[in-house]
């Protein structure tokens, strides 16, 4: 009987072993359950966020799927205490097994399974936990979980074959979701402590590893005391494992959490408008006419030009990975190195806030106080304002949703006039209030908008980019996407055409109002000033004073179609610009980015630089997979460019931009041009220095939203100060290398008008209106 019992036990053992061997072979072959392909095991984490870097090496933000802002870090970038905390807490025999710790497994079966000791510890190794995170879904029952275990064992062994122990630890920490959008150890270290993983202290490492047990339960933000207790458990485990002494444990366990908490969000940080523009620009698909509504053919044209001429536009679809698939900025872990300088970007954003938030917006609110048509011009009737608001209602998301649900126009109008609780934006933070949706549309339209860009005239590198005041609440980008009438800032292009056709800055023109007959139509331009009326004045004086009569005179001597062609050479991608006499006063719509790029030709000897946004792109292994070079085209001759610089300097030294000297105390060589459109709807200033070209637009969300007074609404008041604040900050930061004493690259003592002609041009006035 005894022999029979022994044979029976051996038979059962052999059958169990055989069954296990067959089962594990079947799992490994993929016959039972899910066994990931070898390629997946060799690259188990297929989602790494793309990092966007500034030119001075700062991470500006990431692009990712579903807030999985995971950034890969190598084992060498981990704090030693972080690795020690993980091993001590999760798998103290990690370096002694090959994926499965049979000793720990047996202990868990006996103590937890048989004796019911809940705190006896688990049998899963770090490698098994990684296998579970990567390839196992959430189990809904004990049975389902038991079936998952053998599969995880096999995957763990395969992972051990493909990776070193250090690499497995890095994979584990790179993959884990630490809560609060902190996916992966790099983002977690930054979110909770504002640090890199290699700089984490012992207590900080212990806290993060403590979250691996259950990040929601031990949430350090909502449950700080519970999190602290869990951290101390990790510290105790580190002491038991020999990584800490008793004295160190006593010291560390007594410390508070000391969080430096900040949730990582793609809307946070600097250059939010730029990062969003760049994301859309790089992921753009080849433009197809059918994808654009009939009213937006200008956008189709502009996208088509960019796709054909700029390698960065649609880069993800123009280039493929080794496997032949397009690049994915949300998952491929790319590094995009931009031309933006984080310091200059901060100066630009501060300049915009200081002028618009502290000065312009309060002044605009005061002007609108008590005005029935506010924030719209007082020149409009209530009926006209209502028409504009109803157009905005039909463009709103609320309207589209209600319309899709079958609501009638009467129901929609009633809903938009029904008071509703809502949270609205202010410059001092969001506030809860009650207003009708229609009033909320009117409220948001009361905020002034702005666009700003600064770039190098030598290579086109964009140093600062501001698309608006607040990306979360005003997402429309007024730097690259928005286009508004440019007014007098178009005049330097007209004058450059004149220089190309034999004119000189010292040529004389009659400063009188004239009527021109064009295609049988009479056109009589107006001018804001009658200074020196009836006299013969130089073209330099005409540009400095932004005199419309001189511009009209020049246009009458030139070919309007040639002017349109030249605008396109300057990089203005608007096919709807029609040749006409009135074009000399800037009625066409152009973006801030196009204007700044065009003005680089004056500083760069007639060669215009297209905006350069990115210098290179690296893959997730650090290999450079793309480099981008400046894109240039010759627009005017070097001699014409010299003449234009001479005249643009006159705008600052004795013209409409003179307040740069007498009010903002700007020194050095500066050229520029102010611009103000009809009714003060758009205010512009483009300024050039030997090393930077920068442009500003300020206006309302709608052309009928503006200052009614010329004193407040002109470009010299609304836009120019932003440029001045920005440049003063740039010059003050000596680390940037920009000098106020830099000079334009002109021939020595360059003066095409001569000393006598130049001396009679200075008016010495305190204020000039366009």
TrEMBL record:
Highest taxon in the source lineage: Bacteria
Residue ranges constituting the Penicillin-binding protein transpeptidase domain according to the UniProt record: 455-690
Gene3D superfamilies: Biosynthetic peptidoglycan transglycosylase-like (1.10.3810.10), DD-peptidase/beta-lactamase superfamily (3.40.710.10)
Metabolic or biological pathway: Cell wall biogenesis; peptidoglycan biosynthesis
Reactions listed under catalytic activity: Preferential cleavage: (Ac)2-L-Lys-D-Ala-|-D-Ala. Also transpeptidation of peptidyl-alanyl moieties that are N-acyl substituents of D-alanine; [GlcNAc-(1->4)-Mur2Ac(oyl-L-Ala-gamma-D-Glu-L-Lys-D-Ala-D-Ala)](n)-di-trans,octa-cis-undecaprenyl diphosphate + beta-D-GlcNAc-(1->4)-Mur2Ac(oyl-L-Ala-gamma-D-Glu-L-Lys-D-Ala-D-Ala)-di-trans,octa-cis-undecaprenyl diphosphate = [GlcNAc-(1->4)-Mur2Ac(oyl-L-Ala-gamma-D-Glu-L-Lys-D-Ala-D-Ala)](n+1)-di-trans,octa-cis-undecaprenyl diphosphate + di-trans,octa-cis-undecaprenyl diphosphate + H(+)
GO MF annotation, one: serine-type D-Ala-D-Ala carboxypeptidase activity
Keyword Glycosyltransferase belongs to the record: yes
Keyword set includes Metal-binding: no
Principal location: membrane
Domain called Glycosyl transferase family: residue spans: 57-238
Record GO biological process: cell wall organization; peptidoglycan biosynthetic process; proteolysis; regulation of cell shape
InterPro entries (alphabetical): Beta-lactam/transpept-like (IPR012338), Glyco_trans_51 (IPR001264), Glycosyltr_51/Transpeptidase (IPR050396), Lysozyme-like_dom_sf (IPR023346), PBP_transglycosylase (IPR036950), PCN-bd_Tpept (IPR001460)
Locations listed in the record: Cell membrane
Keywords, in A-Z order: Carboxypeptidase, Cell membrane, Cell shape, Cell wall biogenesis/degradation, Glycosyltransferase, Hydrolase, Membrane, Multifunctional enzyme, Peptidoglycan synthesis, Protease, Transferase
UniProt family annotation: In the C-terminal section; belongs to the transpeptidase family. In the N-terminal section; belongs to the glycosyltransferase 51 family.
Protein name: Transglycosylase domain-containing protein
